[in-house]
Amino acid sequence: MIDRNPRSALASNIEVTAATVQRGDVIQLGGRACRVRDLFQLPQGAKQLLFESGELLTVHTRTRLAAVRMMRRR
Q1: Backbone angles phi, psi at 16, to 5 degrees
Q2: What letter would DSSP give residue 4?
Q3: Residue 58 and residue 44: Cα distance in Å, rounded?
Q4: What are the φ/ψ torsions at residue 30 (nearest 5 degrees)?
Q5: CB 17 within 8 A of CB 35
Q6: pTM to 2 decimal places
Q7: Helix (H), strand (E) at residue 2
Q8: What is the pLDDT of residues 25-67, one digit of tens each?
């Protein structure tokens, strides 16, 4: 679930790859919004994403996914 407090954060739609994905990114998979809890580096630049739901997804170097990243206001 995405926090919708307009005073503390801004949401930005971005494209993520194995090189750019971060903890906290929300990725749309099969109609569900999945927040990245942790990520693990794999051989040849791939990463394994662990979502808050407990599910895993392996992202290879050429995989591109649409995501929402919460940007904090300063």
Answers
A1: -115, 150
A2: -
A3: 12
A4: 60, 35
A5: no
A6: 0.79
A7: none
A8: 999 998 899 999 999 999 999 999 999 999 999 999 999 999 9
